[in-house]
Amino acid sequence: MNPHVAHLPCMEVFSIQDGELTLQGVPVTQLAESAGQTPFFAYDRAMIDHRVAALRATLPPEIHLHYAIKANPMPELVQHLARMVDGLDVASAGELALALETETAPADISIAGPGKQDHELARALESGVTINLESPGELERLAELANRHGRTPSVAIRINPDFTLKTSGMQMGGGPKQFGIDTEQAPAVLHRIGELSFDFRGFQIFAGSQNLNTDALITAQNGIFELFNRLADEAPAPVTLLNMGGGLGIPYFANDRPLDLDRYGEHLHRHVAACRQRFPNVQIVLELGRYLVGEAGVYVVRVIDRKVSRGQVFLVTDGGMHHHLAASGNLGQTIRRDYPIALATAMDHPAAEDVSVVGPLCTPLDVLGSRVPLPYAKPGDLIVVFQSGAYGLSASPTYFLNHPKAAELLV
């Protein structure tokens, strides 16, 4: 197998038949026919099921698993996951509508985000979901809406903690942030919630995302539970919710190694036992997005042209950064590294040359693979980008140059 993808955990679930990648036993060429086009994203429900089962087997049974819809809002995928997890977390009115179309109870849906508009707060208020408050100003706007509509909102405070989750792909807490209420501001906000007689549920404490460092995640666990214990003493009502976010990462690049889920879960067992002893009615939520779906997806493009420029081979494809911004390097804002990439119909062939896989856009940033070792490829061949189940199509500039939108399949 191509060494560029052999290290991936997903290759233990995906299969290869006659040299061709298959999902659920369906060859990629047949999936292209089902999609009716290239490019397309395909998501393997067996891999999603496998990941949820692994979490259930490893984490404390008291943990409530939530799916963060922002990772991948494909409606069919959301419906599938909603039947497997304990709740859903959303970040917009559009995502809230998707969540409410599932069988998930409103009490098990939460909405977060630093810029909730009044119409989004009103919809959340009407539906009865938990509103994660991001600022004192948002609290006052919600109070006005609650008074106007004659409803009592269920709320939690999203905390911007006084610590960071080191080695995270994105720092979501610690220092000045647009996310959440600073730890030192929380007592005053809690007092105000008591004055308003809102249905106070608890706290969301989230420090960072895409982390493969098990030690860092365990250190963050320690900080989250310690901070929760401190803040609970200030709460205007018995605390019934601790949403500890997620942060669990997946390996994208050759030197990445999967986090040690067993060790992470073992440490979490101790925290949960102590927390439940002090707060027997508290619901402890682990909110995951990428970790549930990221490895279950592939992005498939077709080679349109093969060209050589000053000795370098370029495979020009019909897809690129307009569908999969993350794989192209996020507009050059980070040091670009290649996602795992392979020739989908020659998975068992050795690499024959180093090629650059590029898209059809009029920008040199439209690169899916830079001088990666692949078997010889020609126009018409299919190339697959792995680790594409999260933050793909919905996180990309799909209207740039007005190319057709990629299709999506749940297999």
TrEMBL record:
Alphabetical list of PROSITE patterns matching this protein: ODR_DC_2_2
Keyword DNA-binding carried by entry: no
Pfam families: Orn_Arg_deC_N
CDD domains xrefs: PLPDE_III_Btrk_like
InterPro entries xref list: Ala_racemase/Decarboxylase_C, DCO2ase_PEP1, De-COase2_CS, De-COase2_N, Orn/DAP/Arg_de-COase, Orn_de-COase, PLP-binding_barrel
Keyword line: Pyridoxal phosphate
Chain positions with N6-(pyridoxal phosphate)lysine modification: K70
Cofactor: pyridoxal 5'-phosphate
Keyword Transcription regulation in record: no
Annotated Orn/DAP/Arg decarboxylase 2 N-terminal domain residues: 47-293
Record-level GO BP terms: lysine biosynthetic process via diaminopimelate; polyamine biosynthetic process
Superkingdom field: Bacteria
Protein's UniProt name: Orn/DAP/Arg decarboxylase 2
